[in-house]
Amino acid sequence: MSKVFKQQMRGESLDDFSQRLVSTTESERRRMAKQVKRFVRYLHERPFQSPYSVKEVIKSGSLGKGTAVRDLADIDLVVFVNGLTSIDDLKEEREDLLEDLEDHLRTTAKISPEKSSKYSLTYDWHDIKVDILPAVDVLSLYGSPRKVYDVMGQFKPRREAAQQFSASLAPLQRDFVKEIPEYVKKVIRLVKLWKEENSLEIRSYSIELLTIFVWTSNGEENPGTDNLFRKVMRKLATCETLQVGFDDNYKCSAYPSMSPPYIRDPANPYMNTLERINSLDEVSDCARRVLQRL
């Protein structure tokens, strides 16, 4: 096999390479778990002004799902806020909540965000990329994913519903990926490293979903690391025409159709995880070059 990755040795299988340099080590996982625990503790120390308080902190991102690449770990800390009773409340209060979080962490943890958006704050915490997102616990509020999706369907435009509810649906996103076998996660990490080494504009979540789709489409058996990686690359080589959906939390056919390319979020029927990516042709070209070496 020709080299696919910069640090892969000639003749080394992807499975061996993953074990050697891509998957996190036990000591690294312990270190990161300890640092995340410290960070979460700060979030529980009354970061918000009255009447808001922290209900729960959900750990998602690659660390929460078990798909972290060695030296490229990230975690999403979704902060469910007591005192918010709807997504409309969150929209109205999000800016102030983020400001409270930023002030609180500057005082307690002595850190400032590397960047911010209207939805989140991003920190570099002991070599872990941490995104903090205030959210509403909509699954508890409405009682089931189906009822949440009914509420989302009332939003206009629906694209806004996809964005506004995204963080609040993090438990479903996390669990969908977290429960898959380790041999599938091994391939996810390899594809993420491929994306990183080639500076490709495709979301890590899209990579996770596509890899799971390829695996389930082939009977949920273990085809081997090299073989599953090759199958994912074949899909990525036709990135501009992808049509990927899952019926685990809802029936895709019951919701508005999407125009290719799309990878529909299994937690969010209105979210196309490939949306707003303008360089999918580069992803396809790079995947085709990899296939020539496999």
From TrEMBL:
Pfam families, A to Z: OAS1_C, SMODS
Entry superkingdom: Eukaryota
CC annotations in GO: cytosol; membrane; nucleoplasm
Domain (2'-5'-oligoadenylate synthetase): residue spans on this chain: 148-253
TM ranges: none
GO molecular function terms listed in the Swiss-Prot or TrEMBL record: 2'-5'-oligoadenylate synthetase activity; double-stranded RNA binding
PANTHER family: 2-5 OLIGOADENYLATE SYNTHETASE, C2H2-TYPE DOMAIN-CONTAINING PROTEIN
Family (UniProt): Belongs to the 2-5A synthase family.
Name the record gives this protein: 2'-5'-oligoadenylate synthetase 1 domain-containing protein
